[in-house]
Amino acid sequence: MFAAEKIIFWNGHQHTEYMNHLVEAFEKKTGIEVELHQFLSPQLRDVIVNQANTEELPDMLYIPGDFVGLYKDIKLSPVPDEWVSSEIDVRVKDSGKVKGTNYGIPLFQGNHLMLFYNRSLVKQPILDWDQLPEQVATFSKQVTFPITWNYREMYWLIPFMSGFNAWPIDGEKITLNTPEMVDALNFYKQLTDDGLVDPDCDHDCSVTRFKAGQSAYMINGDWVIRDLEKTLGDDLGIAMLPEIKGKAMTPMFSSYVLAYPSLTQDIKKLALLKRFSLFAQDNQGQQIILKEAGLMPVNNKVLREQTGEQTENQLMVIKQMRATRTMPTTDKMAVAWSAMGKGFTRFMDHNYPAEKTVILMQRFADREVKRRSAIEYN
């Protein structure tokens, strides 16, 4: 393990600047050295698991909340209760828990989807999907697709599933082969058949089109707000995701968490880690996360103090956040994502009917769960 007089810290969040400043503020306040490494990779999950297999992990990680479902693979230790601020809501704390045990401390909440719109193109944002075709006639010729999002990424499918009472996980059971899922897939595909959204436009394509005024609406997450504000300024509007025939869409939310591989028993090192963890959750650390990254703090006191200063858009981000569900942290969620993606490709590119697609998704998931169980058993 590393030396006890400093903290070795790997940051896995792509927005690195605010974490640099948070670490600098902590060092200045406490005199404790933090050796910060930006640990960024498109295959972050696999890289961390591989590092754990070689026992080359740091004192502390900053990783997506659903990674805690891999607590066995990346050798995460339970977080001591006294390291977690009492100012964090229970459901936000749960984003770092697996089966009731806390393996991560969330530092911001969100990563949830919402509806962005261009005020220069849209007078009143739609409240229900039925209203979008009615608005199309009012858009200028530069609008090639009325709405855009990362269509083939399954995280974007989730709120549409929720609009039909479908959800990928029930406890520890993957639930993809359901009539509700069939309805959700058919509705989702109909939007492309009607020419409302481009099924081949990914995340970066969507952002580019929206910023250029080629789409009046975009479904995306809080991580793009700062970038959109720079381009659109006051023309940027944020609204709740539209209802599906009167039924609300419910996106997932997640967080990034501090997590501790093979937590040391060295009393001095434990004290350092506790001080950093509490600092990051307290006023100064949370203000850095809020003001520099534009991310929603987990500390309720900080959030309440900001309410009077919030813009209309910021208040809408909070409102949508309150209408989310926590992304499951079970390791079954990773299986569900993969199974949904494989089945969805057949659905879109090979003309599989939705009824056959959900059977295929469930088969992929069940087979992988069985394979993993056999490996764990052996």
Automatic annotation (TrEMBL):
Coiled coil: none annotated. SUPFAM superfamilies: Periplasmic binding protein-like II. The keyword Transport applies. The keyword Transport applies. Keywords: Signal, Transport. This is Extracellular solute-binding protein. InterPro entries: SBP. Pfam families: SBP_bac_8. Belongs to the bacterial solute-binding protein 1 family.
